[in-house]
Amino acid sequence: MGSTTGRKFSDIQSDVYDVVIVGGGVSGLTLAAALKASPYTSALKVALIEGMSLAPATKWDPSPDQLSNRVSSITPASQAFLQKIGVWDYVYPERVRQYDDMRVWDGVSGARIQFDSFQLDAAGAPMAYMTENLNLQQALLESLAEAPGDNQVKIFDSTKVEQITNSTDQLDDVDLSSWPAVKLSNGSTLRARLLIGADGVNSPVRSYAGIESRGWDYGQHGLVATLTMEWDDRQDIAWQRFLPTGPIALLPMPGGKASLVWSTTPKLAAHLKSLDPKAFCTLVNAAFRLELADLNYLYTRSDPEEIEAEFEWRDGMLPMEDEGAKFPVRVVEVQENTRASFPLRMRHCDSYVAPRVALVGDAAHTTHPLAGQGLNLGQGDVASLMSVIERAVVRGADIGDEVVLQEYWAERYPANHVMLGVVDKLQKLYCTDSKPVVALRSAGLEVVASMDWIKKLIMKQATGI
Amino acid sequence: MRPLLNNTRAIRHIRSYTYKTEPSKYPGHVPTNCLQKLFLAAGSGIYSFFNPRRGDLIATLGEATALPPLMYRLRDVMLSDPTGRRILRERPRITSKTLDIAALRKYPANTVGKVYSEWLDLEGVSPDTRAPVRYIDDAECAYVMQRYRECHDFYHAITGLPIIIEGEIALKMFEFANTLIPMTGIGAVLAPLRLKPKQRERLRTIYFPWAIKNGATAKPLINVYWEEVLDRDVQELRDELGIEKPPDLRQLRKLKISHL
């Protein structure tokens, strides 16, 4: 008996947790909230570590006319899960916009497909909820704060993970060797029965567990921005046009705003970020409305007045009846400091689990944003892992046991792999303007667009219900 | 006894294939469907093969065979260039009204305007001999075709190819390589069938190689705002566009040279 490190028993005990979650993003916080919401797991001792300060989320005081550029599309399945664990009630509803119609088209051939919830036999049911990640984070933190005092999740924010090693401690009659020991920048070391990696693409937890992550970079950057539309289009439509340089998507946000996700070449992304704000808006409009030849020409211009004049001329030639049906309302303003870009990549881990370790969200997989699935795959992971932990607790099994965790991996890996694969193939299929490929993909799209049962099937997969 | 064609539904059905057309998209537009274009192309093609002087028929052949993807391609070539865009935006027309031929005659030697006017006088033609576009179903593509047609005489002027049939064929091949307008290719391939073997040999060994090489490597001629380059030196413009002047066809004919 006794500690091999020579420290006192009580020191160690206070730093021993059932679950240590590394990462205070949406996935990590959702798992924490879910653990506290379930009657089976609410008694578990849970810690959450986040390198950045969580104050911006806890003290979030949003102004109605400002929107963060970090926005996510939440599928009905994810929303239902957040509802189930009691988090959705804390989300500011006035900062959520749902859409029930999605219009996607080929920028080269113009072939189109429209999804609307009428085809799901659920008129008016949302296809997704758009909201700022901060709105979700504050709701998750709020719900965590509601738990009874002695049972709260211990949150270490502004605290970095310095090192993860295998513990060599012995606690009472529990053998802590093989438990991960997480050394924090505040000096303490947490021992975890189950260590969760919700720490993003370059996950330190994954490195500790020695899990290989595979994939490739798309050679594209995702440019995001918060935009103001000419007027608030009461139709709740998500728009996406596939350009050969990458898809551009406009997602409706509350109050006549919209969130832009423009996947494009790194060079163009840099150009678009540095462009005069007015000219940037014009280029967004051009990217949805004009011919590729016009768009490619406008990319080479930087005089705002010239861009404006060229756009007005070409836009004026579009048929009136396409307005509001084939492309979105015009963008008139980009909110200051919301233009940002990040490299797009595909990554998938060989495994999500190791002894006493499980990975969720971006730590396990990263995908192209074209299907709006990034956050939702993470939510799916959390829901699956939760039910595995619940079952283990009910059966009295060790929640850190790899055999227990394998069940989570077995359930999520194939589902995620299919989604990553489909998104990856779509990306590759649409990032070309080769004539035969365009002809084939357009014919294919038109077949799909004319067959409601296929559309229903796709919608089912994409919404998760 | 029932009349043979009493079935009005059947008649309407047949009509829907033969007469049903879209509304007119620009002044002078004659909307046509695929079948009608096919007849137009066949009729004008056969007739102009035997009467190559019927410019109106060649124009009709050009319009009836103008496959939309190739016309949109040519339009996109214009949309990708500042001058091309300006031409599409301003849609200038070349006629004896918009172009003062008498003034061009007074231009210094070797300017585009002078060479063009000399060429008009030499060949005895006027810019007004060009028919308006009628059978192209997109207003902007119709203008592109109109512009090509009205600039055709400038192409003669800048290449120095004469309006005699051999020169016309060589220029057609050059235009096909440069614009991909189907009619120019059809003309360049089929028209030589009417020529003498010597003439065909001259085209094959001298003018077609020149036309394909220069047409494909030169800048798109459709993007030249001819009205604005009239006072420029013709050789300088040729260099800028990347065109070598072909051997003088009239000279070669005189000397009966069929290969170099």
Automatic annotation (TrEMBL), chain A:
* Swiss-Prot/TrEMBL catalytic activity: a 4-hydroxy-3-(all-trans-polyprenyl)benzoate + 2 reduced [2Fe-2S]-[ferredoxin] + O2 + 2 H(+) = a 3,4-dihydroxy-5-(all-trans-polyprenyl)benzoate + 2 oxidized [2Fe-2S]-[ferredoxin] + H2O; a 2-methoxy-6-(all-trans-polyprenyl)phenol + 2 reduced [2Fe-2S]-[ferredoxin] + O2 + 2 H(+) = a 2-methoxy-6-(all-trans-polyprenyl)benzene-1,4-diol + 2 oxidized [2Fe-2S]-[ferredoxin] + H2O
EC no.?
1.14.15.45, 1.14.15.46
Q: InterPro entries annotated for this entry? A: FAD-bd, FAD/NAD-bd_sf, Ubi_Hdrlase_CS, UbiH/COQ6, UbiH/COQ6_monooxygenase, UbQ_mOase_COQ6
Domain FAD-binding, residue spans:
17-415
Give its localization: Mitochondrion inner membrane
Metabolic or biological pathway, per its Swiss-Prot or TrEMBL entry? Cofactor biosynthesis; ubiquinone biosynthesis
| Keywords, alphabetical | FAD, Flavoprotein, Membrane, Mitochondrion, Mitochondrion inner membrane, Monooxygenase, Oxidoreductase, Ubiquinone, Ubiquinone biosynthesis
Q: What class of enzyme is it?
A: oxidoreductase
Which function does this protein serve?
FAD-dependent monooxygenase required for two non-consecutive steps during ubiquinone biosynthesis. Required for the C5-ring hydroxylation during ubiquinone biosynthesis by catalyzing the hydroxylation of 4-hydroxy-3-(all-trans-polyprenyl)benzoic acid to 3,4-dihydroxy-5-(all-trans-polyprenyl)benzoic acid. Also acts downstream of coq4, for the C1-hydroxylation during ubiquinone biosynthesis by catalyzing the hydroxylation of 2-methoxy-6-(all-trans-polyprenyl)phenol to 2-methoxy-6-(all-trans-polyprenyl)benzene-1,4-diol.
Q: Which family does it belong to?
A: Belongs to the UbiH/COQ6 family.
The cross-references to NCBIfam families, in alphabetical order and at most eight, read:
COQ6 (TIGR01989), Ubi-OHases (TIGR01988)
What is the protein name given in its UniProt record? Ubiquinone biosynthesis monooxygenase COQ6, mitochondrial
State the organism of origin. Myxozyma melibiosi
From TrEMBL, chain B:
Claim: Metal-binding is one of the keywords in the record: yes
- Signal sequence segment: none
From the UniProt record, list the coiled-coil ranges: none
Ordered alphabetically, the record's keywords are: Lyase, Membrane, Metal-binding, Mitochondrion, Mitochondrion inner membrane, Ubiquinone, Ubiquinone biosynthesis, Zinc
> What cofactor is this protein dependent on?
Zn(2+)
Pathway stated in the Swiss-Prot or TrEMBL entry: Cofactor biosynthesis; ubiquinone biosynthesis
Catalytic activity, per the record? a 4-hydroxy-3-methoxy-5-(all-trans-polyprenyl)benzoate + H(+) = a 2-methoxy-6-(all-trans-polyprenyl)phenol + CO2
Amino acids binding Zn(2+)? H152, D153, H156, E168
Q: How does it sit in the membrane?
A: Peripheral membrane protein
Keyword Metal-binding carried by entry:
yes
Q: By its UniProt entry, which InterPro entries does this protein fall under?
A: Coq4, Coq4_euk
Subcellular localization, per the record? Mitochondrion inner membrane
Subunit (UniProt): Component of a multi-subunit COQ enzyme complex, composed of at least COQ3, COQ4, COQ5, COQ6, COQ7 and COQ9.
Protein function: Lyase that catalyzes the C1-decarboxylation of 4-hydroxy-3-methoxy-5-(all-trans-polyprenyl)benzoic acid into 2-methoxy-6-(all-trans-polyprenyl)phenol during ubiquinone biosynthesis.
Family to which this protein belongs: Belongs to the COQ4 family.
Protein's name in the database = 4-hydroxy-3-methoxy-5-polyprenylbenzoate decarboxylase
